[in-house]
Design brief:
Rossmann fold; 5 helices; 146 residues; alpha/beta; lyase; binds 1,3,4-trihydroxy-5-OXO-cyclohexanecarboxylic acid; five-stranded parallel beta sheet; globular; amino-acid biosynthesis
Amino acid sequence: PRVLVLNGPNLNLLGTRQPEIYGKETLDDIINRLRTQALMAGWELVALQSNYEGELIDAIHKARLDGTLGIVINPAAYSHTSVALLDALNTFDGKVIEVHLSNIHKREAFRHHSYISLRADGVIAGLGSQGYQAALDAIVATMKNA
Ligand code: DQA
């Protein structure tokens, strides 16, 4: 089975971008750890970070046709703006877990609403990079029970 891990704009700067909010780990650190976790569970992990909305949408379109069973997505700022990303996820039949490193609910009001949450089966916010691991666990577990 395959899981897709999508990360939106500015997350390529993790490690140096406002580390007091987003932590000191780089995105590579996080993805490498997740890949190991996936492999241990017998899953293949495909990861994409993009600063372009359309590229994230294209990846979702591909996942919907290539047998990908779940998507872990940190849409970053697109969470709060992108109906297009929501529409794309609504075409995907598998499990979708939304992850935010920071607790968006204790930050500025404009971060409190996420379009993606209207589709997400689960939402994790404020647990830092641990959130990605929990999201992957959840996807692996639901497929086990399916
Ligand atoms: C974020 C929260 C968003 O509000 C912000 O725009 C991000 C990262 C998070 O992981 O905490 O870029 O999704």
